[in-house]
Amino acid sequence: MAILVTGGAGYIGTHTCVELLNGGYDIIVVDNFSNSNPQSLKRVSEITGKTFPIYEADLLEKEDMMEIFAENEIEAVVHFAGLKSVGESVSVPLHYYQNNITSTIILCEVMQQFGVKKIVFSSSATVYGITDNMPITEDTTLQAINPYGRTKHMIEEILGDVAFADPSWSIAILRYFNPIGAHESGRIGEDPNGIPNNLMPYISQVAVGKRKQLQVFGDDYPTKDGTGVRDYIHVTDLAIGHLRALERVQMTTEIEAFNLGTGFGYSVLEMVTAFEKAAGVAIPYQLVDRRPGDSSICYADVTKARKELNWKAIRGIEKMCEDTWRWQRENPDGYAKVIKKNKNQKTPVRQSMGFFNV
What we know:
Layout: E1 2-6, H1 11-22, E2 27-31, H2 39-48, E3 53-56, H3 62-71, E4 74-79, H4 86-91, H5 93-113, E5 118-124, H6 147-165, E6 170-176, E7 178-180, H7 199-207, E8 214-217, E9 229-230, E10 232-234, H8 235-249, E11 255-260, E12 266-267, H9 268-279, E13 285-288, E14 297-298, H10 303-308, H11 317-330, E15 350-352
Parallel strand pairs: 1-2, 1-4, 2-3, 4-5, 5-6, 6-11, 7-10, 8-13, 9-14
Antiparallel strand pairs: 3-15, 9-12
């Protein structure tokens, strides 16, 4: 029996694949590579010394998903696949609603048809919107303020309805705060398309010379240095959180949400200083006006995950910065570039690490 990992070629997906394989699980990866690179999965195989089936397929294609489930003995799903840019979601909301929500509905329909009723869902702290009540607990009111966050909230509601209608489902919803860092090998890490939307990949690209300087949005927040404070979590700790959640859904029949973070926050300028120390290079930055919708402070209450998942983030800010810098320094252009096929070119559904040509 294997674990199906949707979106397994992405940033968090690859790190979770490594931890699953090292934890003794068999995995199957499904990814359409629309915003990821097949090279990342080759590196997962290199790190772990293990091979696994890969399907280049889209969750929106129900027949393809049916074929994947028919060909394999799948016991549970870890569901990462989805579009994830907040800014882009504001520009093309219908695309986000169609892709993220419809694909999850199709996935659940196929799972139900094949009697697979255990799923770990990749949600986000964006479902909480902006709140002044810190730390954020799982009971904090959900009030997403952008289409991306609303797709996550809507999917959570859909999964809740699925579990209510059929109590034999077991579902873990993981609300991430701010994943950063990279695998300590330097072989896999965050490889954003175009200009990074998040702080750490932007800082690291400035450090390696790809960007001129960092823009710091706002220095007049009610924080120790005036810049925004966020809860940053090492991506490996986050990946291990998925293993603990998977263990839970294999033993229960319920639906629960869990915050995954460290439980405290660092400011933008504290992150800059920590990265400068780790990399040994200066990070030039420019103070600019606040961005609309940014909160001053955001960090998680992780008590529930500690008690019910037996999980805790253990990697500190120094490790987060060191691993980010190692990845960026050794991979200044991210993964080796792959020529994208023509959109009208039909790709066979099944690919395997044994003969997956990149």
